[in-house]
Design a protein that fits this description.
The structure holds two protein chains of two kinds. By secondary structure, chain A is mainly beta. Helices cover 0% and strands 52% of the residues of chain A. In chain A, the strands form three sheets. In chain A, strands 2, 5, 6, 10, 11 and 12 form a six-stranded mixed β-sheet that branches. In chain A, strands 3-9-8-7 form a four-stranded antiparallel β-sheet, with no helix packed on it. The N and C termini of chain A lie far apart (41 Å). Chain B contains no helices and eleven strands. Chain B is mainly β. The N and C termini of chain B lie far apart (33 Å). The chains are: A mainly beta, B mainly beta. Chains A and B meet through strand 6 and strand 11 of A and strand 4, strand 5 and strand 9 of B.
Chain lengths: 113, 115
């Protein structure tokens, strides 16, 4: 069965320090992988996506993620956290183009001043 | 605003009542999706349409739930005989089919509270 697991339900960092949000997937096929962000009272927004091109994907607001097939991982990173990065982050997988997305349970990112 | 819009944004109802949510997708998008999100969880897929055809339904979608997209534009999600367990955020999203790499555009959701 296709699934995605976010390894941390909550991550807390200080402003200006690196961010690492971890995600592993299970699949028998080559997936498309995404990270979405959800700010309070806002709709889900796409941060970045991997669709079998470059394994290192750059997204908006300085975020990037690396697809590692051998580790079945797609961790999200940012070199320096900003207060505005505080939100819920979802790792998402799709197994057929244009089809449904399967969401992880989310990681809440807190950023301390 | 040309994004996905949902109405109402918040609905409070008593157990046993019927509720209906509406979603207006981005105008050129032919795929429309419904998801449900409960507190502390990621969104769960409910169903999706390509134009007016309902292509897939999750087993989460009990027979009390029905979704329609009669003219391939807006969609409605109706919940009959609501239960307290139906309390959740109902999210709508839309996308293009051709050239689509799975990116969905989400609305801000309709929050349902069943008392």
């Amino acid at each position: 069965a296709q699934s995605v697991t976010q390894l941390d339900s909550h991550v807390s960092v200080s402003e200006g320090t690196p961010v690492l949000l971890r995600c592993n997937y299970s699949s028998s096929y080559s997936p498309s992988l995404f990270w979405y962000v959800q700010h309070p009272n806002k709709g889900l927004q796409l941060l970045l996506k991997y669709t079998s091109a470059a394994t290192l994907v750059k997204g908006i607001n300085g975020f990037e993620a690396e697809f590692k097939k051998s580790e079945t991982s797609f961790h999200l990173t940012k070199p320096s956290a900003h207060m505005s990065d505080a939100a819920e982050y979802f790792c998402v997988v799709s197994f057929n183009q244009g089809g449904k997305l399967i969401f992880g349970q989310g990681t809440e990112l807190s950023v301390k001043p | 605003d040309t994004g996905v819009s949902q109405d109402p944004r918040h609905k409070i109802t008593k157990r046993g009542q019927n509720v209906t949510f509406r979603c207006d997708p981005i105008s050129e998008h032919n795929r429309l999706y419904w998801y449900r999100q409960t507190l502390g969880q990621g969104p769960e897929f409910l169903t999706y349409f390509q134009n007016e055809a309902q292509l897939e339904k999750s087993r989460l979608l009990s027979d009390r739930f029905s979704a329609e997209r009669p003219k391939g534009s807006f969609s409605t999600l109706e919940i009959q005989r609501t239960e307290q367990g139906d309390s959740a955020m109902y999210l709508c999203a839309s996308s293009l089919t051709s050239g689509n790499t799975g990116e969905l555009f989400f609305g801000e959701g309709s929050r349902l509270t069943v008392l």
